[in-house]
């Protein structure tokens, strides 16, 4: 019995695990991504899009799985786990690069003199003890003059002169000087940043004032490259139309004002009539607007009564 045809048809269902293409697939196991740089087969793409996408996806997944099986593994309760390598794809930063700090006074001096920074080890060899000791800190080399059993004292030194205390004070003075210089460098850098922010604020304030100087509040002005839209800058205009109550109140106020002016003119004095006091007296302390509203309501009632 010839079963070669059955075997061939069964083998055709299972594709090879090796993916061969003109341009090899770029596999980044660190990010679990596969990049296919091969051009699209236009004929296959247009004839059967679904089959073409499935074939392309299958090749990428097969290449990724083959790369994962080639990685070293470690045992775990859930089974062997592959140790992913570092990613090779460079992704853009989520935030901008930090601005460089301004150079310190020593860095500017070293750059001018051509001095290169040398790394100093924390340990230093002690010839007397024949061992490595700390350069600073506890039992440091910088304290050996304080701990030595004999000290050299000048002939004209005071009677109560303590060489150990003098050496300790000199060391603490050096530490305080370094700390003071560090704070000065920080303050100098902060001053530079504050100066930049103040300059930026002044420019924005000047730009805002120039925009608001036009009748359109800068709406029809020529925009600069990278110029931001001003917010909260609006020109308010009084409405051209007013309600009947508002018109009546304004008419009442103008009438009272005119009468007050005529009274001043007739009597020849300025303190004969107090307009505000008169309005408060007539409106019982509620003001001219309330008085105008009451007058409007009274007129409206009369009109409605007349219709009846």
Entry keywords:
flat; nucleus; Ribosome biogenesis regulatory protein; 308 residues
Question: How does this model look, in words?
Answer:
InterPro entries: Ribosom_reg. Keywords: Nucleus, Ribosome biogenesis. The chain is mainly alpha-helical. The chain is built from nine helices and six strands. Among the domains are: 72 residues, no CATH class; 78 residues, no CATH class. The longest helix has 50 residues. The termini are far apart.
User: What is the typical, i.e. mean, pLDDT?
Assistant: 77
Radius of gyration: 45 Å
The share of residues in extended strands comes to 5-15%
Instruction: Give the number of DSSP strands.
Output: 6
Our count of helices gives 9
Order of strands in the sheet with most strands? 1-2
Weakly predicted, low-confidence segments: none
Please trace the helix and strand order, writing H or E for each element: HEEHHEEHEEHHHHH
Overall form: flat
Helix content: 40-55%
Distance N terminus to C terminus?
116 Å
Largest sheet: 2 strands, antiparallel
Structural class, by secondary structure, is mainly alpha
Family: Belongs to the RRS1 family.
Protein name: Ribosome biogenesis regulatory protein
InterPro entries: Ribosom_reg
Pfam families: RRS1
